[in-house]
């Protein structure tokens, strides 16, 4: 694999930081196909398709690719919460946009770009359980298992990653770099 780097240039606090390639576009797409096959097999033959709920804005690309790679039908909806300030969790969850779908007695698949502290995913799982769905499962593209405190482990995980700040494939820094096809990581302890 060719080593790639990215130098941040967005007019923010981390300009000049060099990020290293963590996961290539090819690796992402191959893993998305594998997860799509697993989800399709798990929900094949159900009387109603699952409702996939993407957590905006970061899960947008992942969810789109996942839906296109699945061999079963699925409904979709989105929810938006806020828990980040710059590059770290604020420790508080704010619901910005709720879902419009009725998930009562339905299978729900919550689609997350990344699980790091576990605060957001715990909040969202409990939020959905209050609507009495048939089931709630979580699919996360990235999982920082070493620092996460989750009530329930995610059922589907793309990649376990170290505790580094990441951008690309939907993940951002101050709303920049989401469009990148690869995922890059910043070592917060390493100075530029």
Entry keywords:
single chain; 192 residues; alpha/beta; Rossmann fold; 3 helices
What's a quick, concise take on this entry?
The protein is of the alpha/beta class and 192 residues long.
Structure description:
With 192 residues, this protein is α/β, with parallel strands linked by helices. It has a single domain, classed as Rossmann fold (3-Layer(aba) Sandwich). 21% of the residues lie in helices and 34% in strands. It has three helices and ten strands, in the order E-E-H-E-H-E-E-E-H-E-E-E-E. The chain has helices spanning 25-43, 60-69, 119-129; strands at 5-7, 18-23, 51-56, 75-85, 88-97, 107-115, 135-143, 156-160, 165-167, 183-186. The strands form two sheets. A six-stranded mixed sheet has the order 5-4-3-6-7-8, sandwiched between helices. Strands 1-2-10-9 form a four-stranded antiparallel sheet. Helix 3 links the parallel strand 6 (107-115) and strand 7 (135-143). Helix 1 packs across helix 2 (60-69). The longest helix is centred in the N-terminal third of the chain and has 19 residues, at 25-43. The chain is globular, with a radius of gyration of 17 Å. The relative contact order is 0.20.
């Amino acid at each position: 694999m060719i080593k790639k780097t990215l130098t941040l240039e967005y007019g923010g606090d981390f300009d000049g930081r060099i990020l290293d390639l963590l996961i290539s576009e090819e690796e992402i797409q191959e893993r998305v196909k594998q997860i799509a096959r697993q989800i399709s097999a798990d929900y094949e033959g159900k009387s109603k398709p699952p409702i996939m709920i993407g957590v905006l804005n970061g899960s947008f690309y992942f969810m789109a690719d996942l839906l296109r790679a699945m061999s079963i039908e699925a409904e979709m909806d989105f929810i938006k919460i806020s828990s980040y300030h710059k590059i770290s969790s604020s420790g508080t969850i704010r619901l910005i946009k709720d879902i419009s779908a009725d998930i009562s007695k339905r299978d729900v698949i919550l689609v997350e770009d990344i699980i790091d502290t576990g605060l957001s995913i715990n909040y969202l799982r409990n939020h959905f359980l209050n609507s009495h769905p048939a089931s709630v499962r979580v699919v996360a593209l990235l999982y920082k298992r070493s620092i996460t405190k989750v009530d329930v482990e995610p059922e589907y995980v793309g990649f376990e990653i170290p505790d580094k700040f990441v951008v690309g494939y939907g993940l951002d820094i101050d709303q920049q770099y989401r469009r990148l096809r690869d995922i890059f990581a910043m070592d917060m302890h390493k100075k530029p």
